[in-house]
Amino acid sequence: MALINVAAKEIHCKIVYYGPGLGGKTTNLKYIHATVPKQAKGELLSIATETERTLFFDFLPLDLGSVHGFQTVFHLYTVPGQVLYERTRVAVLNGADGVVFVADSQRHKLEEDVRSLQELARNVTAQGKRFLDFPLVMQYNKRDMDNALPVQIMDQYLNTIRVPRFEAVASRGLGVFDTLKTISKMVINKL
Amino acid sequence: MDPQLTSLIVSERETRLIEDCLERLVDDTGANYSMLLDKSGQVVAAQGDTARQDITALGALLAGTFASSREVARLLKEKDFRVLFQQGIKENIFTELIGEQWMLVVMFDKRTHIGLVKVLAKRATDELTSILDTVRQQSRAKDAVISSSFRTSMEDTIDLLFKD
After folding, report:
1. A3-190 maps to which CATH number?
2. Given this model, what pLDDT does residue B144 score?
3. Which of A165, A184, B42, B132 could form a disulfide with A138 if both were Cys (CB 3.0 to 4.6 A apart)?
4. B65 touches chain A (CB under 8 A)
5. Which of B39, B56, B162 shows the shortest C-beta gap to A61?
């Protein structure tokens, strides 16, 4: 749920990157952090294990500056992807205005992708929201891998509801900003 | 969390009331500063010496701490933990839930007694509960404060800023 503070003239929105473990959610945030202009970004905060797996979340505030006198800030979060951490994902998803689902394109990851997406739908619904109306963007990551599935097959399994989707290689930044731009605009249009 | 609400609109009047309440709490306890957080981690208002830390990051982390304690409560078959206290060498953090959606945070050092913070935070949460009820009702009743020209300008800004 976005927060609009009329007195301070501020708008805050929350976008969560969701998806299976090692799919590239944190990599998306790292690329965004490394690339956006200095004045627009806050510190990238990670609660991770020693091996850099996300334990709780990553957090990156992006300040879009003043538009029509309103300061707009997007709060980007990732969830830990490992199956075990569903309750942590629920906690981070709390109050989200939009979600980017980062799917791993590798053939052997398809089942994990599907399960994670089903879990997302369940958790959004559990918050009392209609999943079909919820701002969602699909990102098929790791398109550069030899064992990446054809996009049509991924669509068949992951995008039956036909939300905007992008092919990506997050480690090189491909598709990262297209995804971010689209979800940001969807969130703004829901305000 | 109210699922029907897509945005929570805090008007100038309510912001002033919230800030007055937080300011009184800081003055009466001698705390360093105080914040009102939304459970999703956003800082609704803050009063006191807030310049000393990155309160945006703190908001996200403290909401995370509370979310984690809620899961601990679930495992213990407790309804929830309404209060969390983190004790440091220089600074302490007292966090209390307000209703189901908000959190009151008080940052204080050794000059302030925890007992006083507890009592006065309770008084503040009662006061904030009624202000926040009004905020919720108003957000539900109000038409979007965001105009279509604002949206168009936002989209242009997004295109300008979010690029390689």
Report:
1. 3.40.50.300
2. 59
3. A165
4. no
5. B56
A&B contacts, CB < 8 Å = 149
Q: Hey, which bits of B39-144 come out as E strands?
A: 43-48, 83-87, 92-98, 102-108
- Residue A14 and residue A96 in contact, taking contact as beta carbons nearer than 8 Å: yes
Structure tokens, A152: 């049509």
> Considering Cα of A3, then B61, then B102, then A78, what sign does the dihedral take?
positive
CA distance A108 to chain B (A): 31
**What residue ranges of chain B have pLDDT lower than 50?**
none
Q: What CA–CA distances, in Å, run from B144 to A38, A57, A67, B62?
A: 31, 31, 16, 29
Q: Which residues pair with B9 in a beta bridge?
A: A4
Q: Which domains does chain B have, with CATH numbers?
A: 12-161 (3.30.450.30)
Q: Is A113 helix (H, G, I), strand (E, B) or coil?
A: helix
Strand order through the sheet with B92-98: B43-48, B33-38, B102-108, B92-98, B83-87
CB contact under 8 A, A190 and B161: no
Determine the Cα–Cα distance for residues A116 and A92; give it in Å rounded to an integer: 15
Chain B positions in Cβ-Cβ contact with residue A67 (cut-off 8 Å): 150, 153-154, 157
Could you report the predicted ipTM of this complex, rounded to two decimals? Answer: 0.89
Check whether A49 has a pLDDT greater than 90: no
Chain B (130-149) residues lying within 8 Å, Cβ to Cβ, of chain A: 144-147, 149
